[in-house]
Write a structure and sequence with these properties.
mainly beta, two-stranded antiparallel ribbon
Amino acid sequence: MTDEEYENFDLKLEWKIAKNGNSGIIFFVHEDTAKYKATYETGPEMQVLDNDGHPDGKIVKHRAGDLYDLISCRKETVKPVGEWNAAEIKSCQWQT
């Protein structure tokens, strides 16, 4: 979580997941509890998941690395439970 808002960023991170785990990286979140009950209502999520152990692993666009419920990864490269994975999320808002 950050205190500032960013339009342009290159977020690089490593993640690993526990057996049957389900998590994610949500970005472009607008925190306004009067309008939105949950962060996922305002920002897209890169899925972090045990693809083999969690039921969501059977759903297209719900697997690790997918933009949850929107876009599947071009190539699945997720490592097994307990191993580190590298991820990169880039955002560049072009000005005209």
